Automatic annotation (TrEMBL):
Full protein name: DNA polymerase III subunit delta
Organism phylogeny: Bacteria, Bacillati, Bacillota, Bacilli, Bacillales
Catalytic reaction annotation: DNA(n) + a 2'-deoxyribonucleoside 5'-triphosphate = DNA(n+1) + diphosphate
GO cellular component terms, A-Z: DNA polymerase III complex
EC identifiers of the protein: 2.7.7.7
Chain ranges of the DNA polymerase III delta N-terminal domain: 8-130
Length: 324
């Protein structure tokens, strides 16, 4: 495995770039210039050119860095029409790389495509670093910085509502901020009313709201929400899978919290974002373990009905909710 061949991936480009900059500064031990630092973007440059640069010895410098951004070839993302990458050449380069230049691939995606031979080769020969999502507080700080860069600010209650509606998802939040700024025009401040008018609740947050309605006995509201989600083209089978995932998380959080685990420790143990654990703990406290097990059993039975019954799938899901 090569220490000078690094693939860094995750959903937040800003955090990935921060990691890369730290690696570059530590490696070069001198300011970046045109001789010791070269940057490419695989959306616009063919991989052959990147490889040729990586294999060229440094000129007027002891060390060199080649940074390759938007390295989507390691994910399931489709290639832009005007760029044709020689993936066989890239695979051979990774296998035979001799370490004389620091090469960093920046992959702006939460997952690598494990089915690809290219990814298997990368995992075998390169150093991989996954950059986790921001915490809730880090995300709020980033939102304020992002808006400040665009000469805007946001009231605290509006910021709290934005997080409640979107969850801690960088890409979703960035899209919603762009919508909000377009809506604001020349107005400098985002209010809670602006957020409630413009921002859409994410599917993940809708499912948390759905389980909250169920927990509070608001079955009619829960079924109205199901109909709204189905109207937005969400499949009942997918909705049930997300509901099941929530109750499984409630069960895990309940057990681990009883053992004295903190929210952060639970998040690390079950590999879930701390914000999701925070929401799950809030609902899990209202249940006992036996009830959660019964609900999960009911989820399994409903899943079987959805896949095998000729009944209307939305009706099956509504009856499931009414039975809880």
């Amino acid at each position: 495995m090569s220490n000078n061949l690094i693939a860094v991936y995750g959903e937040v480009p800003e955090l990935i770039r921060k990691f890369s900059n730290e690696k570059v500064e530590a490696y070069l031990d001198e300011p970046k210039d045109d001789f010791n630092f070269v940057k490419f973007d695989l959306y616009h440059t063919e991989i052959t050119q990147c490889i040729e640069e990586a294999l060229t010895l440094p000129f007027l410098s002891d060390k060199k860095v080649v940074l390759i951004q938007n390295a989507f070839v390691f994910t399931g993302e489709k290639a832009p029409k005007d760029v044709n990458h020689n993936l066989q050449q890239l695979m051979e380069f990774i296998e035979k790389y001799d370490d004389h230049t620091l090469v960093i691939f920046e992959i702006y995606n939460q997952k690598l495509d494990e089915r690809k031979k290219l990814v298997k080769t990368l995992k075998k020969h390169a150093t991989l670093k996954k950059i986790d999502q921001m915490t809730e507080e880090e995300m709020k700080a980033w939102i304020k910085r992002y808006l400040n860069d665009h000469y805007k600010d946001i009231k605290q209650d509006a910021l709290d509502l934005l997080i409640e509606l979107t969850g801690i998802h960088y890409n979703i939040i960035k899209q919603e901020l762009e919508k909000l700024m377009l809506f604001l025009g020349d107005n400098p401040t985002i209010t809670k009313r602006d957020v409630s008018q413009i921002v859409s609740r994410s599917l993940e947050q809708n499912v948390f709201l759905l389980t909250e309605y169920i927990q509070k006995g608001k079955k009619e509201k829960a079924n109205h929400l199901v109909k709204d989600l189905v109207y937005m083209k969400e499949e009942p089978i997918k909705l049930l899978a997300l509901i099941t995932s929530n109750y499984r998380l409630f069960y895990q959080c309940k057990i681990l919290s009883q053992k004295g685990y903190s929210g952060q420790q639970i998040a690390k143990t079950v590999s879930v974002h701390p914000y999701r654990v925070k929401l799950a703990l809030g609902q899990a406290r209202k249940y006992d373990l036996e009830t959660l097990l019964k609900i999960m059993d009911s989820c399994v039975e409903t899943d079987y009905k959805l896949k095998s019954s000729y009944m209307d799938k939305v009706l099956i899901l509504e009856l499931f909710i009414l039975s809880l």
